[in-house]
Amino acid sequence: MSTETASAGRVAAPPPAGWEEARSRVYAVGLAAALPAVARPLAEIDGHTLAEPLTTRTDLPAFPTSSVDGWAVRGAGPWRVVGRVLAGTTPAPLAEDGTTVEIATGAMVPAGASAVLRVEESRRTPEGLVDGVPRPAPEWREPGEEAVAGEELLPAGTPVDPALVGLAASCGHDTLRVRRPPRAALLVFGDELLTAGPPGAGRVRDALGPSVPAWLRRYGCQVRPGDVVGPVADTLPAHVAALRTALAGADLVCTTGGTMHGPVDHLHPALEALGADYVVNTVAVRPGFPMLLARLVGADGRVRFVAGLPGNPQSAVVALVSLVAPLLAGLAGRTMPVLPHATLAEPVPGRGDHTHLALVRLDRVAGTAHRVRHVGSAMLRGLAGADGFAVIRPGTSGATGDRVPVVPLPLLTGERAW
Question: Where does this protein have coiled-coil stretches (predicted)?
Answer without folding.
Answer: none
